[in-house]
Design brief:
The chain is largely without helices or strands and about 70 residues long. It has one domain. Helices cover about 5% and strands about 10% of the residues. It is built from one helix and two strands; from the N terminus they run E-E-H. The protein has one helix at about 55-60, and strands at about 1-5, 5-10. Strands 1-2 form a two-stranded antiparallel sheet.
Length: about 70
């Protein structure tokens, strides 16, 4: 699931295929069954919180924002 031009879009994952999302586009993986994936990126990884855009998918989960410290 990603948000592009203010609209939610679903990109189905396919076995054996690479799914690519450009840097700066808010996105989240919504898992409906057990799966193993690998994520990688070119260059430095920079996490930016997406606000409430994905709240309906993350309401009962723990994410990076739950581990923020005053040092950040």
């Amino acid at each position: 699931m990603l948000v592009e031009d203010g609209a939610e879009k679903t990109i189905p994952l396919k076995v054996g295929e690479v799914t690519s999302v450009e840097a700066g586009i808010p996105h989240i993986m919504v898992v409906h069954e057990d799966i193993t994936t690998f994520e990688w990126w070119d260059g430095d990884f920079i996490a930016e919180l997406a606000g409430n855009e994905f709240k309906k998918y993350t309401a009962t989960t723990i994410g990076p924002e739950d581990f923020l410290t005053e040092e950040v």
